Amino acid sequence: xxxxxxxxxxxxxxxxxxxxxxxxxxxxxxxxxxxxxxxxxxxxxxxxxxxxxxxxxxxxxxxxxxxxxxxxxxxxxxxxxxxxxxxxxxxxxxxxxxxxxxxxxxxxxxxxxxxxxxxxxxxxxxxxxxxxxxxxxxxxxxxxxxxxxxxxxxxxxxxxxxxxxxxxxxxxxxxxxxxxxxxxxxxxxxxxxxxxxxxxxxxxxxxxxxxxxxxxxxxxxxxxxxxxxxxxxxxxxxxxxxxxxxxxxxxxxxxxxxxxxxxxxxxxxxxxxxxxxxxxxxxxxxxxxxxxxxxxxxxxxxxxxxxxxxxxxxxxxxxxxxxxxxxxxxxxx
Length: 333
Prior knowledge:
By secondary structure, the protein is α/β, with parallel strands linked by helices. Helices cover 38% and strands 17% of the residues.
């Protein structure tokens, strides 16, 4: 039996592409690649949408966590960024290279994806698709079932492993053809279309730029902090993340490392803040004044703010006035 590897995001397009392949009697195994920038994961460990889709399709799913390798692509993408910090073309090349490795290790014959010609401006143009195939080492071995009839025949189609006549000719950004096809297949449970990558978000892109500038050797932990709370650049070597609710307060506490400092109001409710980097007394006072600004107290009166290292059992205290808005605006990321 012919075996193929599906790049399964869990979105409607990848689900439909997989059904088209399964209808041809092809044995399908799916792969999914997650990073700290994915928005569809459970604490960055697994893609919930792809797992649900694989279960419904009755196929095996292999999930790869590739954040550390992906960081290097973000720092220096060969083909540049999209409108924010999204290196879409380099990202696709990276994931297809990984898929190619898995294809060869499992004895599969080709890789397929739910990509649609013209749907995404950066990575789904005809020339971009050709670049992805070439640079990933998969020339002629990437089948795109939903747009195949608009593209050059691939090796699996030429050799008869895949029946080209049963493939489709969908193009563009409209989802109407996919919705019609989903009805034909009896597929009713699929996620709404939405960006699944934080790097496309302008606010998060500003934070990752700041991190790359001041901490070039950043870690997954650093990125997880970027996803939580309000962020302030205090000095070239210090930044502060401030929780906006109890969930974020708890998350910052979980993410705090040995040399970080946690700050919180001593006698009233308010945020937990995480101070990371080299800091002096002035930086600590500024951090405390920011925590005071977001605490449930009189904004015109000084407030006691507690601070400690994560493993310390006893906190110290600092009486500070809340930071003023012009200063806060200037340092907000």
